[in-house]
Design brief:
Chain lengths: 112, 116
């Protein structure tokens, strides 16, 4: 079974631009969660989608948004990028009744 | 709000030694899960071990075992016969019950180096 796939692996943007990151979950997994990892703040929960609905949301500004498609693939969007948005963005998927999340390799976003 | 604290930013041991990583957490929930994840330089977060709070028996996965002290809210990870491939960042994580099961709260991590 293929693991969680995140694309792209690396991304460089400039301040003010917007960016879209993609996550394909493990086949059969319907929940997708997103996390931001930075040296200063560590790993922080962004949001979680299940069956195309946002179920949980972390404490991030409205510039961070996401969506989930009917095939469970998810995208995360960050608008009006700031330097502080430079981070590793991790996606994780899980089956409905399990509490184990399986992570992708992440997308490294650099904002210049 | 739940918090997870890892008090050891870095640790270093010799290959084949045993090492214990510490983790404490704070929660008012009665039903929750605790995890140890490993993140090697490749960045892929890998599940090492999981503990359900309602189970008194400590979880074990091959060379990895935990010491779960629910009253003390402590959840340490013991790695026996450490190997070079164990070198990584280790994160302790918490999630509350089934409804909140998809929202992990992480500690700051412990960088573990296994020396040959």
């Amino acid at each position: 079974k293929a693991g969680v796939t995140q694309t792209p692996r690396y991304l460089i943007k400039t301040r003010g631009q917007q960016v879209t990151l993609s996550c394909s979950p493990i086949s059969g997994h319907r929940s997708v969660s997103w996390y931001q990892q930075t040296p200063g703040q560590g790993l922080q929960f962004l949001f979680e989608y299940f069956s195309e609905t946002q179920r949980n949301k972390g404490n991030f500004p409205g510039r961070f948004s996401g969506r989930q498609f009917s095939n469970s693939r998810s995208e995360m969007n960050v608008s009006t990028l700031e330097l502080g948005d430079s981070a590793l963005y991790l996606c994780a998927s899980s089956a409905r009744q399990e509490s184990i999340q399986y992570f992708g390799a992440g997308t490294r976003l650099s904002v210049l | 709000a739940q918090t997870v604290t890892q008090s050891q930013p870095e640790m270093s041991v010799q290959e084949a030694e045993t090492v214990t990583l510490s983790c404490t957490y704070d929660t008012s929930e009665s039903n929750y899960y605790l995890f140890w994840y490993k993140q090697p330089p490749s960045r892929q977060m890998i599940l090492v071990i999981r503990q359900e709070a309602y189970k008194q028996q400590n979880a074990t996965e091959n060379r990895f075992s935990v010491n779960f002290q629910k009253a003390a809210k402590s959840f340490s990870l013991k790695i026996s016969d450490s190997q070079l491939g164990d070198t990584a960042m280790y994160f302790c994580a918490f999630c509350a019950g089934i409804q909140g099961a998809q929202k992990l709260v992480f500690g700051q991590g412990t960088r573990l180096t296994i020396n040959p």
